[in-house]
Amino acid sequence: QVRPVQSGGGSVQAGGSLKLSCAVSGGTRCNFDVSWYREAGGKEREFVAAIENDGTTTYEDFVKGRFTVSRDSAKNTVYLLMNSLKPEDTGMYFCKDSCYWGRGTQVTVSS
Length: 111
Known about the structure:
- The protein has strands at about 5-10, 10-15, 20-25, 35-40, 45-50, 55-60, 65-70, 75-80, 90-95, 105-110.
- It is mainly β.
- It has a 6-stranded mixed beta sheet with strand order 2-10-9-4-5-6, with no helix packed on it. A 4-stranded antiparallel beta sheet has the order 1-3-8-7, with no helix packed on it.
């Protein structure tokens, strides 16, 4: 089994956008549901958003209306599109399939 491979992230000014990618192995029991978490502001890892195998999405309140999670099944990849970014969104973002965590990618939002 292979852990998810993350890409994207980087630095952006407040109000800008970034898109994170999470490539999962595909075709295994571990890939049905994919979630995004972050470690921001010195806090413990917290839930951000998730997408289930049937396309159902869930968002934490602090990203509703700004972040969108989507899936490209043909590419076995889940995306997190982050709009209207705020300095408090700065942190390390992790994706997790049903079994394994990705290694994380840094997002930095400057004011």
